[in-house]
Write a structure and sequence with these properties.
40% of the residues lie in helices and 4% in strands. It is mainly alpha-helical and 97 residues long. The protein starts with 8 loop residues before the first helix and ends in an 11-residue tail after the last helix.
Length: 97
């Protein structure tokens, strides 16, 4: 399922909305397309840091913090803004780049 290919950040940035899984994977340098099965993104079980990031993203009150995005789902700028706050610096698997 996963091929360890770095995500095409330019392509993924064009998405109008992201699922929690699609948002968490690129933050850790994993291409969400490499984790797709039958149209649904599955985070590999051994990617514990990605699972933690996904859980943290799910805990954010998106509708309250970003009311203008209420009907559109997660958006790139909102995800990156929140990720900077929640992903611990110094983690071996934190934001790639």
């Amino acid at each position: 399922m996963e091929d360890n290919k770095e995500p095409d950040y330019s392509w993924w940035a064009k998405a109008d909305s992201w699922s929690f899984e699609d948002a968490a994977l690129p933050l850790h340098g994993v291409d969400p397309a490499s984790c797709r099965l039958f149209g649904h993104t599955e985070i590999p079980f051994w990617r514990t840091e990605v699972h933690r990031t996904c859980d943290l993203l799910k805990s954010i009150s998106w509708k309250e913090k970003y009311p203008s995005l209420r009907a559109k789902g997660l958006h790139l700028l909102a995800v990156v803004t929140e990720a900077i706050k929640i992903i611990p610096c110094g983690s071996s698997e934190n934001l790639s780049g």
